[in-house]
Amino acid sequence: MKIGIIGAGFIGRAVAQLALAAGHEVMLSNSRGPQSMSSVLSGIRGVQVGTAQEAAQFGESVLLAIPFEHYRSVPAQWLEGKTVMDANNYYPNRDGHIPVLDRFETTTSRLVAEHLSQSKVVKVFNAILAPDLTQDARTRGAPDRRALPVAADDPAAKAQVIALLDEIGFDAVDAGGLDESWRFERAKPAYCIPLDKEGLKAALAAAERQVELPARW
Ligand SMILES: NC(=O)c1ccc[n+]([C@@H]2O[C@H](COP(=O)([O-])OP(=O)(O)OC[C@H]3O[C@@H](n4cnc5c(N)ncnc54)[C@H](OP(=O)(O)O)[C@@H]3O)[C@@H](O)[C@H]2O)c1
């Protein structure tokens, strides 16, 4: 599969490495353009770089991994019809306050899906730290294989992403549609905690809509 990645930071680069190792083609992009990505090119063998628009066009699936406050800067028409993997998290101190999120009325991925209204948005890769992505990937069946939560409204896109997770080293737990994805947003029990499938299911079930855990989570 061709995977375009918008955002060449910690998460974008980690997913790129794993996807390349699994045999996929990957194009990374950032906000400044490919001329600013020579270290990315030399650091990740086999990766391609391009503008954000080129990465969007390149990808059959596209990973959105930019600071959440910038999600509206990605033109929706670039991603029409595509599966968009949304790794973003809302940090009010970084992104500015978004009242509907502060009031727990919607989810970060629902906002992204409302912006990318012709795309199939799948929330994934938000609930694992970037260094853990490369450190915790395991072959299928490994006893210590970690599970990651996935949410989407489109069943086929969700299945495609679950298959990708399996290829790159992770089990998956289907956490429902985008409106349920608050269960693994920031400050919930499943957020960035290494868990196997059963542990992750329990953590998702234990999440409370209006309860945010302390920052150490
Ligand atoms: N870091 C983690 O462990 C982690 C884990 C899970 C989820 N996340 C979430 O994933 C997202 C990205 O986090 P990160 O830590 O990878 O961020 P980061 O290291 O700060 O990198 C952000 C990247 O996004 C690019 N970017 C910003 N605006 C853009 C735009 N409009 N078009 C194209 N590229 C743009 C930046 O490019 P320039 O440098 O050229 O501006 C940079 O390459 C955040 O929402 C974060 O909360 C992070």
From TrEMBL:
Where does the record locate the signal sequence feature? Answer: none
Question: Keyword Oxidoreductase: yes or no?
Answer: yes
Tell me where the transmembrane regions lie.
Answer: none
Record keywords = Oxidoreductase
Record's keyword annotation contains Oxidoreductase: yes
Give the molecular function GO annotations: oxidoreductase activity
Q: Which residues form the Pyrroline-5-carboxylate reductase catalytic N-terminal domain?
A: 2-89
PANTHER family listed in its UniProt record: DUDULIN-RELATED
What is the name attached to this protein's record? Answer: NAD(P)-binding domain-containing protein
